[in-house]
Structure formats: structure tokens, C-alpha cells
Amino acid sequence: MDFALIGGTGIENLALDDRTEETVETPYGFVPLAEGFIGGIGMVFLKRHGAKHTYPPHLINYRANIWALKKIGVKKILSTGAVGSLSEAYRIGDIVLPDQFLDFTKSRAATFFEDGEQGVLHVDVSEPYCPDVRNHIIEGAARSGLNVKNGGVYVCTEGPRFETPAEINMFRMLGGHLVGMTGVPEVVLARELGMCYATMALVTNQAAGIKKDPLTHAEVIATMDLLSKTVAALVESTCKIMDHDQRCYCTTGSKEAGLF
């Protein structure tokens, strides 16, 4: 199957037709995956936080997840992630397609190339999110009567705590629009292995200091419950028109590294 969906908070229960389960062995551990069909299109589904949302953002085995998808032949990854808004332009319930990121993670393994025969890879992330896949999502949304906002800077923090108002103010001054906890290193690892990757950032709350009330995980889940059917429809409409071939720049990372 050429396409995969990495489901974040609130998307753990995506319905797939003819669903089967498998566990893929990688150099970084074992990864459970679901395979099936959505709208007649083959899809691999990976639950980023585990079956029962047991893995916090900083302990997700990102390398195992991305390696497993590559190993079974996935070419293009759609991901979802709950985000807070740093800007009045992005409101609760919006679906945003980031085109850049700022990385404020601290302790995560961020590359496959730390030692060994492969050496070091300085992968290019001038366009971290595949423009071709993002265009397919935009077209899929239009065909389904849905609205997505194209472009934005995603700020990835370490978590699992929410950010302080001072941090949010800093991110805004640096040009950030959205803040989440899972987008990096996932997007970078996908590029290292030559897969296309695009994120559908789901705005579930206003960030600390913008929202006057305390932030809670419950409000994130509540908003995601409302968005889940919309996301499923968007994934289905996108996959129906998405090209199975890669004609973009995303494949260059793995070619340079000589992997797969």
C-alpha cells in the first residue's frame, strides 16, 4: 500500500474496511499497524500514541514508526495532529496545512544516521512538507466541500506539558502560527527515508496566554471528536486523487543515503 495515515490525538478510531492488523519489526522496535481500505483506497494506519493513547509525545518511537512504514512500501504519509493556535487567523476547528516548522524539542532521536556504515546525512528540509501532497489535500477538500488553510509555521515543543505564556509569546515573535508536540522529528525522518509527508494540523485550542482559562487535555479531545468525521472525509477524498508515483523532491534523502 502506497499511502499511510499517522493518526494523532482523537483519530485513534479511524474506520477502515477489510481491516487487518500486523506488527512490523524494525531496528528500533516493533510497530503495530492496521491495513485496510478507506473509500476503496488502500491505506496503512498507524496510531502515533499507541492503541490506548499510552505514549506521551516525547516517548513516541518516531524512528520505529517511520522505518516500519517505509519497510512495507509506503510512499506518501498523511499525518494529523492537534495544535494550539498562536494567531487569530487560525481558529478552533480549522484544518491547517503547515509549510514550515520550528523545532523546540529537546531529547528526541532526530535522525537515522548517528553512526555505522551509513555515516551522516544532512538532509535538506527547505520544503519539509511535500507540496504535491499538500496540493492533493487542498483539491480533495474542495471536492468534498471542506475548507483547509494552506500554509503556516508549526512550532514543535517537547511536551507533555503545555507551554507557558512566555514561551508562546516567544514563538509568536519568531513567526510561529501553530504549536504542537508531535510533528518533529516525524517529518524529518520521513524525508530521510524518501517518503512524502504532509500534516493536517487540527486546531483544538488557543495557546496559553491567548486563552485566558487554563488549558486542559479534555478540551483537546472534545474538539477532536467533533473534527474526526471531517478528517476521515478529507483523507478519503485526498487519497482518491493522490498520485501513487513520487514526482517531487522528497525522494532525494534516501537516494543520497543509499537506503531502501
TrEMBL record:
Residues 3-237 form the Nucleoside phosphorylase domain. It is an enzyme of class 2 (transferase). InterPro entries: MTAP (IPR010044), Nucleoside_phosphorylase_d (IPR000845), Nucleoside_phosphorylase_sf (IPR035994). Its EC number is 2.4.2.1. CDD domains: MTAP_SsMTAPII_like_MTIP (cd09010). Keywords: Glycosyltransferase, Purine salvage, Transferase. The record marks 163, 217 as: Important for substrate specificity. SUPFAM superfamilies: Purine and uridine phosphorylases. Transmembrane segments: none annotated. Purine nucleoside phosphorylase which is highly specific for 6-oxopurine nucleosides. Cleaves guanosine or inosine to respective bases and sugar-1-phosphate molecules. Involved in purine salvage. PANTHER family: S-METHYL-5'-THIOADENOSINE PHOSPHORYLASE. Although this enzyme belongs to the family of MTA phosphorylases based on sequence homology, it has been shown that conserved amino acid substitutions in the substrate binding pocket convert the substrate specificity of this enzyme from 6-aminopurines to 6-oxopurines. Homohexamer. Dimer of a homotrimer. This is Probable 6-oxopurine nucleoside phosphorylase. It comes from Dehalobacter restrictus (strain DSM 9455 / PER-K23).
